[in-house]
């Protein structure tokens, strides 16, 4: 069982860090009162679930409980629980800009200006920063930079989870899938719809697949499409994308699109990606 406690200055990126860890398989609990840390940790260990990586988010919003924090983490250590504290820091000027952009007030600026609230919080957290295992300064970081650094710290290349890829076939006459990241139009390929023996079949049938692929254009497109995906997917992963939707469309969504969706799915599956497949319109007439 591994516990990570994320804390630091408000506006420094705690939510983004927790989202990144949650996407990587951690169970995240935000703004838990420090006094409940030990009880929740014990509950996780005693339960029979498969939760073995837990993230606790602690920040100044729980200041009425904050005095209990040091006692709680000392108790975790005494009980032999493996935990790390990740502290997110950021320059005052950048924090001020972030608050002005979001038009939110600092939690400690209830009776003063934002910059004074930031200074108050920094003073309150200085001892916690000293006790932290990992400190990340997000002053010059974009959200993807923070996620990437967290993956490097807590996983390493071999443990970075694979991107989940959804491959969907569809018919343009029924509309493009709203969640599509990449859309490929295969209406330029030979159309089995006009072959009487193939009209009522779909791209799941070998006869339809053979007809569609019995064309140099189809063979060349398959080659180029696979090469394009080989280039794109690692770059999507590098940027922290966790779900990619590839939509392949023909006129009705029953023949050509299904054929190529099957081919792309098999290709990506063989390369080790976590891939799911859906033929949205294959049963429609």
From TrEMBL:
Any one GO MF annotation of this record: GTP binding
InterPro entries: P-loop_NTPase (IPR027417), RapZ-like (IPR005337), RapZ-like_N (IPR053930), RapZ_C (IPR053931)
Keywords (A to Z) from UniProt: ATP-binding, GTP-binding, Nucleotide-binding
Domain RapZ-like N-terminal: 1-156
Binding site for ATP: 8-15
SUPFAM superfamilies: P-loop containing nucleoside triphosphate hydrolases (SSF52540)
Binding site for GTP: 59-62
RapZ C-terminal domain segment(s): 164-282
Protein name according to UniProt: Uncharacterized protein
Species in which this protein is naturally found: Peptoclostridium litorale DSM 5388
């Amino acid at each position: 069982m591994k516990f990570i406690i994320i804390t630091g200055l408000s506006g420094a990126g705690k939510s983004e860090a927790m989202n990144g860890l949650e996407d990587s398989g951690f169970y995240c609990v935000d703004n838990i009162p420090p006094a409940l840390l030990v009880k929740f940790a014990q509950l996780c260990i005693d339960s029979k679930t498969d939760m073995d990586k837990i993230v606790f988010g602690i920040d100044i919003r729980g200041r009425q409980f904050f005095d209990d924090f040091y006692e709680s983490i000392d108790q975790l250590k005494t009980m032999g629980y493996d935990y790390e504290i990740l502290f997110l820091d950021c320059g005052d000027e950048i924090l001020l800009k972030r608050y002005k952009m979001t038009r939110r007030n600092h939690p400690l600026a209830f009776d003063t200006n934002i910059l004074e609230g930031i200074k108050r919080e920094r003073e309150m957290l200085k001892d916690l920063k000293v006790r932290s295992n990992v400190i990340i300064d997000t002053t010059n970081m974009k959200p993807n930079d923070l996620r990437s650094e967290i993956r490097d710290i807590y996983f390493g290349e071999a443990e970075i989870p694979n991107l989940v890829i959804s491959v969907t076939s569809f018919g343009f006459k029924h509309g493009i899938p709203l969640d599509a990241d990449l859309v490929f139009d295969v209406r330029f390929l030979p159309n089995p719809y006009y072959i009487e023996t193939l009209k009522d079949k779909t791209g799941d049938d070998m006869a339809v697949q053979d007809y569609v692929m019995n064309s140099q254009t189809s063979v060349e497109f398959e080659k180029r499409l696979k090469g394009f995906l080989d280039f794109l997917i690692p770059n999507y992963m590098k940027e922290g994308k966790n779900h990619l939707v590839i939509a392949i469309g023909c006129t009705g969504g029953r023949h050509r699109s299904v054929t190529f969706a099957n081919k792309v799915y098999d290709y990506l599956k063989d390369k080790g990606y976590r891939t799911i497949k859906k033929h949205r319109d294959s049963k429609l007439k």
